[in-house]
Structure formats: structure tokens, C-alpha cells
Amino acid sequence: MNTTAHLVYRNPPGPLHAIMLAGTVPLFLGALLSDITYFQTYQIQWSNFASWLIAGGLVFCGLAVLFALVNLIRADRKAGRPVVYLVLLVVTWALGLVNAFEHAKDAFATMPSGLILSALTTLLIGVTAWLGLTSVRTGDGK
């Protein structure tokens, strides 16, 4: 009896790409927590914290987009859904940019839309990071 075994192995992003991707998650999460705190306390500094955290998240996310684009171009096989990952990453960056523009408004004018955008951005980067850091490739291992 002759059986063929297909290997399943992980094809995670490179170390710098992974750092940029993983670094984006706590920045957007921190912005969400800052928005929640601002919504409860009305202390303007929390809105400022959220703005800066969003800016940092956009920098990290933008660099992760560049790495993902280069990885997609260099990929010899299109396994592990790299196109879906890249699209989710670009959508996350765009939503974060809209969130940054929303947080540029005056104080409480950012609420509740800034809080909702922060929640959506955090949820989306969580899903994107999960997909990007756990991409599974099947094949012969070559």
C-alpha cells in the first residue's frame, strides 16, 4: 500500500515584519482603552493619548503593509492566503487613518464615532495579525 503524506508547515512572516505586525496590535488596543477612559472621565489627555497611539499604530501598520506587499511579490506559491492578509492589512490601515482624522477633531467631538472606529480598528488588526502570524502552507516542504 502506497500513501503520500503532505506536509503542513507554517510560513510566518520574517522577524522584522512580525515585529511591525505584532507592534500594531497593542498600539491600536491602547488607543481603544484611552478612548474608553476618555468617554468615561472627560479628561482631554486621554484623547491626546489615543491620538498618539493611533499615529504609532499607523506607522507600524504601514510598515507591515510594505513588508506584506514585498512578501506577496516574492512568493513562489500563493499558499496561506497572503492576498487576503494584505487586503485586511490595507483595510486596517485605511480605517486607522480615518480614525486618526476623527481624533483630530476638538475634544468631545470625537465621541462616539472615535470610540467606535477605535473598536473596529482594534478588532480588525487582531484578526489580521492572527491571520498573518499563523499562515499555514501545505505542500512538499520545498
Automatic annotation (TrEMBL):
Transmembrane parts of this sequence: 16-37, 49-70, 82-101, 113-133
Domain DUF2231: 15-136
Keyword annotations of the record: Membrane, Transmembrane, Transmembrane helix
Taxonomic classification: Bacteria, Pseudomonadati, Pseudomonadota, Gammaproteobacteria, Pseudomonadales
Keyword Nucleus attributed: no
Signal peptide as annotated in the record: none
Name of this protein: DUF2231 domain-containing protein
